[in-house]
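Researcher: Sequence recovery benchmark, item below. Answer with residues only.
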């Protein structure tokens, strides 16, 4: 698997890896993931940030036909996982594009997942 890969899909939810076991010895921009049509809410879970590591969850609501470049700092930081802290954040409304990035290096290996759920 790799960052951006779908790891599970059911009739009511989709789980995507935003960061797939990424070492924190260097910064990492992550990859933009498009939230699937028909999904209205979700969660992001970040695990493994240790030492001085900082991981941000970014959102972009623009409607480009293709994702922005991974290095793009557009959009908004909607949550931050700091050193030694796992993060669980609820997204009552999914943005069009999401990503996680390692913005401050440290130690550990980070895995971040987005679970999008259909709203009935």
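Model:
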């Amino acid at each position: 698997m790799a960052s951006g890969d779908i790891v599970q899909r059911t009739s009511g939810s989709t789980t995507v890896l935003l960061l797939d076991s990424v070492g924190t010895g260097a910064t990492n921009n992550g990859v933009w993931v498009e939230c699937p049509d028909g999904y209205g809410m979700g969660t992001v879970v970040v695990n493994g940030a240790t030492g001085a590591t900082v991981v941000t969850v970014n959102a972009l609501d623009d409607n480009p036909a293709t994702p922005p470049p991974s290095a793009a700092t557009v959009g908004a930081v909607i949550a931050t996982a700091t050193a030694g802290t796992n993060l669980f954040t609820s997204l009552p409304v999914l943005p069009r594009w999401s990503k996680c990035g390692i913005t401050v290096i440290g130690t550990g290996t980070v895995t971040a997942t987005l679970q999008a759920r259909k709203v009935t």
